[in-house]
Amino acid sequence: MKIYTFHRKQTLPISVDQAWAFLSNPRNLKTITPDYMGFNIISGADRPMYAGQLIQYIVTPILGIKTKWVTEITHVADKHYFVDEQRFGPYALWHHKHFIKAVEGGVEMEDIIDYKVPLGILGQLVHPILVKPKLEEIFAYRQEKLTELFGTL
Predict the structure, then answer these.
(1) 93: three-class secondary structure by DSSP
(2) Is-above-0.85 flag for pTM?
(3) Contacts of 50 (CB under 8 A, 6+ apart)
(4) Separation between Cα atoms, residue 44 and residue 33, nearest integer Å
(5) Any idea what DSSP says for residue 120?
(6) pLDDT tens for each residue of 8-59
(7) Average pLDDT score over the chain
(8) β-sheet bridge partners, residue 68
(9) What is 4-150's CATH topology?
(10) What per-residue confidence (pLDDT) applies to 39?
């Protein structure tokens, strides 16, 4: 069983309070997800984030195939970090840690995702040509949108 790790950091010229207010609101995921992915929240985003919260989405990650994705917010430390884990969706494992910390002039946001692709050896074969590049593309878009919304350090 191969588990991959995806890691990204970004700094923004905003306060921890501003970063937390934006990033901990599941409704803002649509804003920072590429339009072609058809991201749509079905349920679970009607309250402030809390541990145990289930959020259901429809997303179209590849080839126009709509996929239901259910994540659970498993850990929340107000204005420091939160963790979402896939309960149902396209990955065999998805564990996404979101960290926020104050730095000179703003905040540093850090994403660490541990994930496993489905389909065993076949999934591992397509990982470097399909899955990893798609994650890179999605997070490059996310970085662009956050810079567009908040500026850069």
Answers:
(1) strand
(2) yes
(3) 73, 76
(4) 18
(5) H
(6) 999 999 999 999 999 999 999 999 999 999 999 999 999 889 999 999 999 9
(7) 95
(8) 58
(9) Alpha-D-Glucose-1,6-Bisphosphate; Chain A, domain 4 (3.30.530)
(10) 93
Q: How far apart are the first and last CA of the chain?
A: 39
* Six-digit token string for 52: 């145990």
Tokens, residue 10: 């970004």
H/E element holding 5? strand 4-12
Structure tokens at 124: 């591992």
Amino acid found at 40: N
> How is 38-64 classified by DSSP, letter by letter?
--EEEES-SS---TT-EEEEEE--STT
Cα diameter, the chain: 45
For residue 78, the SS3 value is: coil
**Domain assignments of the chain as residue spans, ordered by start:** 4-150
DSSP-based three-state secondary structure for 151: coil
pLDDT tens-digit map of 55-103: 999 998 777 789 999 999 999 999 999 999 999 999 999 999 999 999 9
